[in-house]
Model the fold of this input.
Amino acid sequence: MLTNLCRCPCIVTRTNLLPLRLGSLAPTRSGTSALSGGGFNTMLVTLAHYFAFEHVEINTLQEDTLAPFDLFLLCTTEGPPLAAGELKALRSWVEGGGALITSAFANWSAWNHYAADTVGWLGLQTIPHAD
Done:
């Protein structure tokens, strides 16, 4: 059972667009992989067309910074690995109903972490330098 709902489940009967609050890491954490970096413009425009859309970038993953989001898109390919506290907050948020899209490149990682810990708790394993 979901608790702490931020909006009524019957919102679809009161609006033409469903709300979607998307979070991602700021460029200081994810480099050019940040959603605001330009490579994701088509995706952001499409989401804004079909949803009452808001995109917010954050620098640190904490329970309180993740709580407002419906969806979080995470890419640390060009950034440092997540700290233990950030992994704990992310896992708690997902297990509480948050939707996560994350990447874990096996062939390249600027910080040589290959997002192994980021996706490891999901039961996934990266294989560094795989082709």
User: Anything to note?
Assistant: The radius of gyration is 16 Å. The beta strands are 18-25, 51-58, 71-74, 99-102. The chain has a mean pLDDT of 82. The longest helix spans residues 84-95.
